[in-house]
Design a protein that fits this description.
By secondary structure, this protein is of the alpha+beta class. The chain contains three helices and five strands, in the order H-E-E-E-H-E-E-H. The chain has helices spanning 11-21, 46-52, 69-75, and strands spanning 25-27, 34-36, 39-40, 56-58, 65-67. The longest helix is centred in the N-terminal third of the chain and has 11 residues, at 11-21. 25% of the residues are buried.
Length: 81
């Protein structure tokens, strides 16, 4: 029998999700490069980690990072972006 354990969401991840909700983030189409307030985010793996977890996605037309419904629910925003 195998079990799957989800990685815990850190306080830093929650802060990134709040920045995404506030419209302050851009992300590459594959979710590997995250830019916050026009600067590359110091945690180079955050974009990929949050994309793979299904918490953020890239808007195809603008590159803006968007919360998924799951990401929105996680931070209590109440609505998906």
């Amino acid at each position: 029998m195998s079990t799957t354990t989800a990685a815990p969401i850190t306080n830093r991840d929650r802060a990134v999700l709040r920045a995404v909700a506030a419209g302050r983030c851009q992300i590459s189409p594959k979710g590997s490069v995250l830019v916050v307030d026009g600067l590359f985010f110091a945690d180079q793996f955050a974009g990929h980690r949050l994309t793979e977890a299904g918490l953020i996605a890239a808007a195809t037309d603008t590159g803006r990072a968007l919360l998924t419904a799951t990401g929105s629910a996680l931070i209590g925003a109440g609505v998906a972006a």
